[in-house]
């Protein structure tokens, strides 16, 4: 590699760009038409009934039981049935835990929640597969079970994982300063217990995979997933093949939201297992109820939070205990807990902090990745604390936040100094202005009558990339073909968010100077170098650096070639509008197509990878201090609500979002993400909830009784306030947006309801039943 | 006689799967449909809009041996003004009700229900007859039709009979219809001069089933209530009228304080339960509120006319 192709130097160079051809513009995404026309192909569209095996899952009906035996004899009598497969048929490892090795793909020995996979049935006819699955008999020896995380923490006699010796799967901590000192300096102290509930992803498309056996013991898997290389790794482990024998393609997806980061590799491994065992193409697609019973949910939490502040409104200390009900398996629970723990303060300066996190096993469906990843619940608690403090101090809630918000040079609660890209205070100040905060909070605080308006703010931060020193990188392969068209190969997937079909094209086009319409992105494939996952809001940030760097390398080569052809220096070369020309004399040029032809005939390589390894520090788990993230995205939201105090019904009228997420590469896409996340967050706060029976079984695994907001329920969402606080390790300074607007939504909406009712909300969801109860309780207190 | 067709299920999988084997008929006339019902009624299900039936079949809550798709029977799809009454064919889609000036002008409570039943896509498919015959306690059309004194015409090979809608429901999913009977039409008398009606639904989302709903019809003369009808949905095994509350209101001056006092009685006339959608406690508390609200709206509408 020549020194001119050093990724860090190239990033620094392009970060300085001031004028843009396509970046920062609301460029139309490449897949808009085919999706609008119904032509885009999703996993299910590759299934050919009758020509492939259809797989049906047999799920546990028990929350906790030993499996005494499995009788498949009746199932095997059903015509066209290929086989009934259980844990003992797995040729590789029956182990799919992401954070801890505690989770089998197929239950082995015992089941730990109702809904766990016990057997797979494959048949040529899908209706026969369903019929046979119903005829598989599982003999259970029921064990005592535990559903409540607080009870599970204490119990030693009922263990979800006997080998662990306790139901505490994982612990985290942050320690800064001395909280005793902090609380002694505090003039006001508020202490509350918060509770948040599970949330289902309700992606339009459920989990599915098609596995195709190829010659030479190779497999191609067309699957849902958010990280093709992880899907491949899990498939390889389960079927016992080298990763290089497996090719994974993730086509268009109907939503992911983190759920398919967890469940995608599992659905792929199930289909691959059957294909490996039978040698036949095998297809599995979850029904909606299977999806809702099986896939991991947003964490249900109990958060005990104590905060202290001095009379001048400065935060002095926090003491926080976070309990996550992780369900039957830890899955990504430890990572989720870790994120919640280090974000527990909210984006504020807090000199003294003590935070403890507990990830607790129970015999319920397990928790997993979901837009915000442990952060919406803890920001809800932190922001409710801020409002409680504001009330006690007699300070306006926005003013109190502005007094404490992080600014460049400040330390986080893990002791990490944030020197750049900290635009949150600016964003909050602007947001207060556009939402007319001051006049509204005054008017609404004294509102009475049946319908009461309220306004609330939620401010949040979200660390970029994986937590602590966990390695993170990006990569992509960019090729300029002989005809001048550009192919980008990336592992980033397209799940509706649009990064490969919008921002990746913009970045490649911007840097190469090639027209946007010649750039094609091949996404979600293991044929691309490992790009990392499409999660943690990294699709257009870390995930796109590969494209950024690869394109920049090619641009260096093109500049050099053009300068030789035009008799000038590389710095003098401008490429745009289909030609390369002299900056000082645009008349002296060579067309884009000619330039590429020349490259091929003069031995200039027109393909490049863009490997980039993100520099990180270390976190000291023992001390509870250290490096957490390379940077944070910041988000704030003001919500205005109306509460019918007679029925408890809450309507969100308007939402004002603000982002300090670095460069906005495509404002149209960003608005889509912000609006979607805000509505998803509103649904979580107001409508969505699972109902569990006394065996921990979900009673409403369907869209009749697990309801999500409809278009008619969506509030008016105003144009976001942007503060472009440039981040040096993002493409053109971008930090990441996807999850952001969901994170402060529970806080903003709950605080608005608190403002309307004059009582602090501490428990979600705010269904009419719960709000009605709050109102009655408050009236009772008054009387 | 219509040929029985076995549906090809070639492209039906995953969420499209209807894991039930059935024989399928698509009669083109009422008589053909009644013939089929006479023959297969006990093991048959009528397919009208399909928005309830197909969901239940996918979930295997019902597994009929025969499906009689009546969508093609044109003579069951109409809204007719007959001077003192309006007749609505059972196959009339909710979207047609929504677009009908007749419904909007004469039966505002039914129009209220139409506006909040599902979304446009559902209203384009679902039929008013299907909503009634599905016999959900939460059926949006039931409370308004009950306070509007609607009658239902049931047809079978043996003949027709007309019953008041208040006698139609027997329990969740159960009606007085015999297996060989088909709901043919709904007749609604035009409301008396000076009366008004309204419907209110409390639901989790804008396109959801009711947690609880209420319809009222009201006439006030010389400031006194001379006619009042109240019906409540989702608060008992069937949608119900509340005769004792109505009785207590008759003859009373129409004053908000009196209304508020008297509507408390509705709680004794309903028997809601705890379920995944709401709680018995909440339903009881809120029934009073929405009945009061509906009465006030009914009054306003009556005075506007």
CATH topology of the largest domain in chain A: Aldehyde Oxidoreductase, domain 4
Q: What order do the helices and strands of chain B follow?
A: EHEHEEEHHHHHHEEEEEEEEEHHH
CATH topology description of the largest domain in chain B: Uridine Diphospho-n-acetylenolpyruvylglucosamine Reductase, domain 3
Structural class of chain A: alpha+beta
The domain count of chain B comes to 3
Principal-axis shape of chain A: globular
The helix content of chain A is: 25-40%
Count, helices of chain B: 11
Low-confidence stretches of chain A: none
Q: What's the name of the CATH homologous superfamily of the largest domain in chain A?
A: Aldehyde oxidase/xanthine dehydrogenase, molybdopterin binding domain
Strand content of chain A: 15-25%
Summarize, please.
The complex is a heterodimer of chains A (783) and B (305). With 783 residues, chain A is of the alpha+beta class.
Structural account:
The complex is a heterodimer of chains A (783) and B (305). The longest helix of chain A is centred in the last third of the chain and has 25 residues, at 542-566. In chain A, 29% of the residues lie in helices and 24% in strands. Chain A contains 20 helices and 33 strands. The termini of chain A are far apart. With 783 residues, chain A is α+β, with helices and mostly antiparallel strands. In chain A, strands 3-5-1-12-9-10-11 form a 7-stranded mixed sheet, with helices on both faces. Chain A folds into 3 domains: 3-40 and 473-613, 2-Layer Sandwich (Aldehyde Oxidoreductase, domain 4); 43-143 and 208-285, Aldehyde oxidase/xanthine dehydrogenase, a/b hammerhead (Aldehyde Oxidoreductase, domain 3); 371-467 and 630-778, Aldehyde Oxidoreductase, domain 4. Chain B is of the alpha+beta class and 305 residues long. Chain B has 3 domains: 1-70, Uridine Diphospho-n-acetylenolpyruvylglucosamine Reductase, domain 2 (2-Layer Sandwich); 77-189, Uridine Diphospho-n-acetylenolpyruvylglucosamine Reductase, domain 3, CATH 3.30.465; 195-304, CO dehydrogenase flavoprotein, C-terminal domain (Enolase-like, domain 1, 2-Layer Sandwich). Helices cover 31% and strands 25% of the residues of chain B. Chain B has helices at residues 30-40, 53-58, 94-99, 101-106, 108-116, 120-125, 128-133, 142-147, 243-249, 256-262, 280-304, and strands spanning 23-25, 44-47, 66-69, 79-81, 85-89, 151-156, 159-164, 169-171, 174-175, 182-189, 195-203, 210-221, 224-233, 240-241. In chain B, the strands form 4 sheets. A 5-stranded antiparallel sheet of chain B has the order 4-5-10-6-7. A 4-stranded antiparallel sheet of chain B has the order 11-12-13-14. Chain B is globular and about 60 Å long. The relative contact order of chain B is 0.11. Classes of the chains: A alpha+beta (783), B alpha+beta (305). At the A-B interface, helix 4 and helix 20 of A face helix 11 of B.
């Amino acid at each position: 590699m020549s020194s001119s192709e050093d990724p860090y130097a190239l990033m620094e160079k392009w970060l300085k760009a001031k004028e843009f051809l396509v970046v920062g513009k609301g460029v139309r995404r490449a897949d808009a038409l085919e999706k609008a026309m119904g032509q885009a192909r999703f996993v299910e569209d590759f299934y050919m009934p009758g020509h492939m095996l259809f797989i049906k899952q047999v799920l546990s009906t028990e929350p906790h039981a030993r499996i005494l035996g499995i009788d498949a004899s009746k199932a095997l009598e059903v015509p066209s049935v290929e086989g009934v497969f259980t844990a003992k048929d797995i040729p590789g490892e029956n182990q799919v835990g992401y954070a801890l090795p505690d989770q089998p793909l197929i239950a082995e020995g015992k089941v730990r929640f109702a809904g766990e996979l016990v057997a797979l049935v494959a048949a040529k006819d899908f209706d026969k597969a369903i019929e046979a699955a119903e005829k598989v008999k599982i003999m259970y020896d029921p064990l005592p079970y535990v559903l409540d995380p607080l009870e599970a923490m204490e119990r030693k006699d009922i263990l979800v994982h006997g080998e662990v010796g306790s139901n505490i799967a994982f612990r985290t901590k942050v320690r800064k300063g001395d909280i005793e000192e902090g609380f002694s300096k505090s003039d006001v102290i508020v202490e509350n217990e918060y509770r948040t509930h599970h949330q289902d992803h309700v992606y339009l498309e459920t989990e599915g995979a098609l596995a195709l056996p190829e010659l030479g013991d190779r497999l191609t898997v067309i699957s849902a997933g958010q990280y093709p290389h992880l899907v491949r790794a899990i498939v390889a482990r389960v079927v016992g093949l080298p990763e290089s024998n497996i090719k994974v393609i993730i086509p268009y997806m109907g939503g992911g939201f983190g759920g398919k980061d967890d469940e995608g590799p599992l659905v792929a491994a199930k289909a691959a297992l059957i294909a490996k065992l039978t040698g036949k193409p095998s297809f599995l697609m979850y029904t909606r109820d299977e999806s809702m019973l099986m896939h991991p949910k947003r964490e249900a939490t109990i958060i005990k939070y104590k905060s202290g502040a001095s009379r001048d409104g400065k935060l002095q200390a926090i003491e926080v205990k976070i309990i996550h009900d992780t369900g039957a398996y830890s899955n990504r629970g430890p990572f989720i807990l870790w994120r919640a723990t280090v974000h527990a303060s909210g984006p504020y300066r807090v000199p003294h902090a003590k935070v403890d996190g507990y990830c607790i096993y129970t015999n319920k469906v397990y928790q997993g990745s979901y837009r915000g990843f442990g952060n919406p619940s803890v920001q809800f608690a932190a922001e409710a604390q801020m409002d409680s403090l504001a009330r006690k101090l007699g300070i306006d809630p926005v003013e109190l936040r502005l007094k404490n918000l992080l600014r460049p040079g400040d330390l986080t609660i893990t002791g990490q100094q944030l020197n750049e890209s900290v635009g949150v205070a600016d964003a909050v100040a602007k947001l207060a202005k556009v939402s007319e905060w001051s006049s509204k909070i005054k008017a609404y605080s004294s509102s009475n009558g049946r319908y009461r308006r309220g306004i609330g703010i939620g401010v949040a931060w979200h660390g970029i990339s994986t937590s602590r020193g966990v390695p993170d990188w990006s990569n992509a392969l960019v090729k300029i073909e002989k005809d001048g068209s550009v192919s980008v190969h990336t592992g980033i997937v397209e799940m509706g968010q649009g990064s490969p079909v919008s921002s990746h094209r913009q970045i490649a086009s911007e840097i190469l100077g090639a027209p946007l319409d010649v750039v094609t992105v091949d996404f979600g494939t293991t044929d691309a170098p490992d790009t990392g996952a499409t999660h943690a809001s990294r699709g257009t940030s870390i995930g796109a650096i590969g494209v950024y760097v690869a394109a920049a390398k090619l641009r260096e080569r093109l500049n050099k070639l053009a300068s030789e052809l035009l008799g000038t220096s590389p710095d003098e070369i401008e490429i745009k509008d289909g030609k390369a020309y002299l900056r000082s004399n645009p008349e002296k040029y060579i067309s884009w197509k000619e330039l590429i032809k020349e490259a091929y005939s003069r031995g200039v390589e027109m393909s490049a990878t863009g490997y980039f390894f993100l520099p990180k520090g270390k976190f000291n788990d023992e001390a509870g201090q250290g490096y957490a993230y390379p940077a944070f995205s910041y988000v704030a939201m003001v919500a205005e609500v109306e509460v019918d105090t007679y029925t408890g019904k809450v309507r969100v009228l308007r939402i004002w979002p603000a982002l300090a997420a670095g460069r906005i590469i495509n404002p149209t896409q960003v608005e889509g993400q912000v609006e979607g996340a805000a509505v998803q967050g509103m649904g979580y706060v107001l409508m969505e909830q699972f109902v569990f029976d006394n065996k921990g079984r979900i009673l409403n695994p369907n869209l009749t009784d697990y309801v999500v907001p409809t278009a008619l329920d969506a509030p008016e969402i105003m144009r976001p306030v942007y503060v472009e606080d440039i981040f040096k390790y993002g493409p053109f300074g971008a930090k990441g947006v996807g999850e952001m607007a969901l994170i402060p939504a529970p806080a903003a909406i709950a605080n608005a309801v608190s403002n309307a009712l004059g009582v602090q909300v501490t428990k979600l969801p705010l269904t009419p039943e719960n709000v009605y109860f709050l109102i009655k309780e408050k009236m009772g207190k008054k009387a | 006689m219509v040929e029985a067709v076995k549906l090809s299920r070639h492209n039906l999988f995953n969420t499209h799967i209807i894991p039930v084997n059935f024989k399928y008929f698509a009669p083109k006339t009422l008589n053909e449909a009644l013939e089929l019902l006479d023959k297969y009624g006990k093991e048959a299900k009528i397919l009208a809009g399909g928005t309830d039936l197909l969901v239940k079949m996918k979930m295997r809550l019902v597994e009929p041996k025969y499906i009689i798709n009546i969508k093609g029977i044109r003579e069951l799809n109409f809204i007719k003004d007959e001077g003192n009454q309006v007749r609505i064919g059972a196959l009339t889609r909710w979207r047609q009700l929504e677009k009908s000036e007749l419904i909007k002008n004469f039966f505002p409570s039914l129009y209220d229900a139409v506006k909040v039943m599902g979304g446009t896509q559902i209203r384009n498919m679902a039929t008013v007859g299907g909503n009634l015959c599905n016999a959900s306690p939460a059926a949006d059309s039931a409370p308004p039709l009950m306070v509007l004194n609607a009658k239902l015409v049931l047809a079978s090979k043996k003949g027709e009979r007309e019953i008041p809608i208040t006698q139609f429901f027997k329990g969740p999913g159960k009606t007085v219809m015999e297996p060989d009977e088909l709901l043919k039409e709904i007749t609604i008398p035009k409301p008396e001069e000076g009366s008004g009606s309204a419907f209110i639904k409390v639901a989790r989302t804008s396109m959801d089933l009711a947690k609880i709903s209420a319809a009222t019809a009201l006439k006030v003369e010389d400031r006194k209530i001379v006619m009042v009808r109240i019906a409540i949905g989702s608060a008992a095994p069937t949608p119900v009228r509340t005769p004792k509350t109505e009785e207590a209101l008759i003859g009373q001056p129409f004053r908000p304080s009196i209304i508020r006092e008297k509507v408390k009685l509705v709680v004794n006339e309903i028997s809601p339960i705890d379920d995944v959608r709401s709680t018995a406690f909440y339903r009881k508390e809120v029934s009073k509120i929405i009945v009061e609200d509906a009465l006030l709206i009914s009054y306003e509408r009556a005075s506007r006319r």
